[in-house]
């Protein structure tokens, strides 16, 4: 697979991994690095940018969905919404440092949109969290950790 095609596949995997769709971006990153044809920094950059873009889509979905919170078909009960809002208000944007984690991270980026976290505050925190994860994965794959 050519460098561009491999990076595009990594970007697609990283993007879908950041949304509520299933994805395996860490495995894609490790696989790409194992081929030895792509610089680690470039693979990390592509994975981070695509994963953060997916998180920004989640944030946008949250911003859009909040308009319908009083609708009977809103996917979250009023009680659960109130609990989630209280937790997010308690921990604030610092909780976005967990956006890299499985299971919790993707919904957290939706919650950030629902709670109207400014995008310019959201993005640097998510870049730090998700970029840090890919640096750690790449370092492990390269035997540096």
Helices and strands, with pairings:
Blueprint: H1 3-18, H2 25-35, H3 40-65, H4 78-91, H5 105-114, H6 119-141
Helix pairs in contact: 1-2, 1-3, 2-3, 2-6, 3-5, 3-6
Domain VTT: 22-137
Organism: Salinarimonas ramus
Keywords: Membrane, Transmembrane, Transmembrane helix
List keywords for this structure.
145 residues; mainly alpha
Written description of the protein model:
With about 140 residues, the chain is an all-alpha fold. The chain has one domain. It has six helices and no strands. Helix 1 runs antiparallel to helix 2, helix 1 packs parallel to helix 3 and helix 2 runs antiparallel to helix 3. Pfam families: VTT_dom. This is Membrane protein. Keywords: Membrane, Transmembrane, Transmembrane helix. InterPro entries: DedA_domain, VTT_dom.
Instruction: Assign an overall shape.
Output: elongated
Q: Count up the helices.
A: 6
Largest sheet: none
Average residue-wise pLDDT = 91
Query: Number of folding domains?
Result: 1
- Cα-based radius of gyration, to the nearest Å: 16 Å
Q: Separation of termini? A: 28 Å
Please state roughly what percent of the residues sit in beta strands, choosing from under 5%, 5-15%, 15-25%, 25-35%, 35-45% or over 45%.
under 5%
- Uncertain runs are none
InterPro entries: DedA_domain (IPR051311), VTT_dom (IPR032816)
Keywords: Membrane, Transmembrane, Transmembrane helix
Pfam families: VTT_dom
Protein name: Membrane protein
């Amino acid at each position: 697979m050519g460098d561009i095609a491999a990076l595009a596949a990594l970007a697609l995997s990283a993007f879908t991994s950041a949304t509520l769709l299933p994805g395996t971006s860490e495995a894609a990153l490790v696989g790409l690095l194992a081929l030895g044809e792509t610089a680690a920094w470039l693979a990390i950059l592509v994975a981070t940018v695509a994963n953060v873009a997916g998180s920004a889509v989640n944030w946008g979905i949250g911003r859009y969905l909040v308009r319908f919170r009083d609708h009977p078909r809103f996917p979250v009960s009023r009680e659960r919404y109130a609990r989630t809002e209280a937790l997010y208000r308690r921990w604030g944007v610092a909780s976005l440092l967990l956006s890299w984690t499985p299971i919790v991270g993707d919904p957290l980026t939706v919650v950030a949109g629902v709670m109207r976290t400014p995008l310019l505050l959201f993005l640097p925190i998510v870049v730090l969290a998700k970029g840090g994860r890919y640096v750690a994965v790449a370092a492990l794959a390269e035997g540096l950790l």
